[in-house]
């Protein structure tokens, strides 16, 4: 029987939501209503699901959401104009642009139109520069930040630890690696071109594993060590149509000291992080008004 501690995201999100609600209340007393604009293009089920989750979290928190919906045939020019308008809107503290965008739109160009100060999910070059240079420009991607918040909640220290990040995307892998390094961890980043023997060795030798490859159950027990802390960021569908992570959970749980479930782990914390970013932006607005 496994003795691994299950790192549920719910208590992390609940605690963060309570802290966020208190901050939102104080801001409202000062006359600042925290507001997030969510831009959705088309009707992708994943986008709709995330938008609903964000809306529920916002309602619990005290953040106002402005929904901006476009048909999938929207022109790039119209999308860019909308972002520019939101950049100038003093009542909007943050913007969440749901992606991927339709193929006829240059996603990178559109993302770069967003002011880093209103970029709630680290999609701009300015925000990523803030992550890599350890400055307060913009905000880090919510999922990468959620990994750090889970470790903090459960008292897992990173200083001096060997952290293996499986995946090098700008959304999770690279920012998570930089954030772990900022906390004085020794970090190894693995990816699809890593030699199999090196992948297995780095996975086995790590104290903490962050799996973000985006492939269902690709990380089996042969790529993991004993008594590790494992954060599984993957959200995939298996052959049965069930949600699963990048980690082969059953065998991994037998070896791990602590492990996040899928669903109910990292993903459940991301919307709470999103609200925290909005409130941090709103707090800066409140300070500017006082000045």
Q: How many helices does DSSP assign?
A: 10
| CATH-defined superfamily of the largest domain | NAD(P)-binding Rossmann-like Domain
Tally of distinct domains: 2
* Backbone structural class: alpha/beta
The radius of gyration is 19 Å
Helix and strand succession?
EHEHEHEHHHEHEHEEEEHEH
Unreliable runs, pLDDT <50, ≥5 residues? none
CATH architecture classification name of the largest domain: 3-Layer(aba) Sandwich
Reported by name, the CATH topology of the largest domain is Rossmann fold
Order of strands side by side in the largest beta sheet?
1-11-8-7-5-6
Give the biggest sheet: 6 strands, parallel
Number of strands: 11
- Overall pLDDT: 96
CATH C-level of the largest domain = Alpha Beta
- From the spread of the alpha carbons, the general shape counts as globular
What fraction of the residues are assigned to beta strands by DSSP?
15-25%
Distance between the termini: 59 Å
Helix content: 40-55%
